[in-house]
Amino acid sequence: DADVTQTPRNRITKTGKRIMLECSQTKGHDRMYWYRQDPGLGLRLIYYSFDVKDINKGEISDGYSVSRQAQAKFSLSLESAIPNQTALYFCAIRGSGANVLTFGAGSRLTVL
Amino acid sequence: KQEVTQIPAALSVPEGENLVLNCSFTDSAIYNLQWFRQDPGKGLTSLLLIQSSQREQTSGRLNASLDKSSGRSTLYIAASQPGDSATYLCADLRGTALIFGKGTTLSVSS
Description:
The complex is a heterodimer of chains A (112) and B (110).
Chain A: E1 4-7, E2 10-13, E3 19-25, E4 31-38, E5 42-51, E6 54-57, E7 65-70, E8 73-78, E9 87-94, E10 102-103, E11 107-111
Chain B: E1 4-5, E2 10-14, E3 19-25, E4 32-38, E5 44-51, E6 56-59, E7 62-67, E8 72-77, E9 86-94, E10 97-100, E11 104-109
Parallel strand pairs in B: 2-11
Antiparallel strand pairs in B: 1-3, 3-8, 4-5, 4-9, 6-7, 7-8, 9-10, 9-11
């Protein structure tokens, strides 16, 4: 199994729909992150969590919400999707201390 | 605020050439510096992590160095191959703020 699993891998939806992207990990790491990647803008942090009770906004959290259901699961929701949320979304994990940042394979979201 | 810059944005080289990718940062208080590779439409694969107490790391044909005094990290790729074609990103892994450069897209022609 992959260290970080993202579902769905691809999703096409319509404006106004609610969408959930899910992330699960098998490493037992405390820190989990959601990023979006857009051409020319690089990776931007949406939300991050250091444990189940510790959730923090990143630089572009407007229009998104998250839930840390368990140490291993961190979900990203778009309550009412809009076209400019079309992007490649990545979940990442990291242990405490000087540990590497490990990414999932990504979820490509298209909002029509 | 830390800024991470990668220049050039794109680089094309013939197969077999040795090359250097650059990553510069404005705040020299780097904690850990990580290099990643990303293939088009794919996730990021970790290549090398340089911890704050280290100056370089090596893995196969790759060598990454960190010079805090100059605010710079370099990724050296020896004997480049077409399979090395990808986008390479560096990131400053400090605390809660994981700051990424926008990457250098490398194309190696056979």
